[in-house]
């Protein structure tokens, strides 16, 4: 069974995007993102703008909303114009305000969705540096955005650059939120998948065994559990331990059936 690259977006808890429908209250939202053509920095923007005084954010917020709507509707030229307008607005908020970093991160995600990856990379790096300056290098938000940058490099098959970013994000978020936190587990799974693709089976198995033990004791992240069961089974077959992989495959089939029935 071939290993497929999975993009797992890091979000900032249960927030609501300023658009036509509420976001499902679930950490693992890949299917929802794909359906609605939205990007992780849209959540980052939503999480921040809801905590800011209305008098300070009206224009910037309207521009960010308009950019998200336009991108969702396939009006890409308009979306880019709105993102640039929001960038101009964000430059007026001062050096300690995170909205410029949020805007640049959202624009980077937009460029990535348009396969304009050289432009996207420059903005990702600039946005991350701004967040380090406003939040501090060991903040949770910097940890999450570091993981997003790792995912960007993974999508481009630039694994040597992705790996240290995953490790840095894991270190930061594990210290702040604990090893069983959903965000920490998600990054561990992404890193384990990277190891599996590289055929670094020992490193991958260590991570899969850790997260499997955590996920088996939780009913809150069944989609992630399904990913781990399937990938762990692939690892077993790849290392000549098919007998150990069969039970994992059976559990994955049962869980997939359960999730389909619950939809």
Look at the structure and name the CATH superfamily of the domain at 162-262: Tetratricopeptide repeat domain
Overall pLDDT: 83
Would you tell me the structural class of the helices and strands?
mainly alpha
Looking at the overall shape, the CATH architecture of the domain at 162-262 is Alpha Horseshoe
Distance between the termini: 26 Å
Can you walk through the features of this model?
This protein has about 260 residues and is mostly helical. The chain has a domain at about 160-260: Alpha Horseshoe (Serine Threonine Protein Phosphatase 5, Tetratricopeptide repeat). The protein contains twelve helices and no strands. The radius of gyration is 19 Å and the shape is elongated. The model is unreliable at about 1-40 (pLDDT under 50).
How would you summarize this macromolecular structure in one to three sentences?
The protein is mostly helical and 263 residues long.
Key structural traits:
Serine Threonine Protein Phosphatase 5, Tetratricopeptide repeat; elongated; 263 residues; disordered N terminus; single chain; mainly alpha
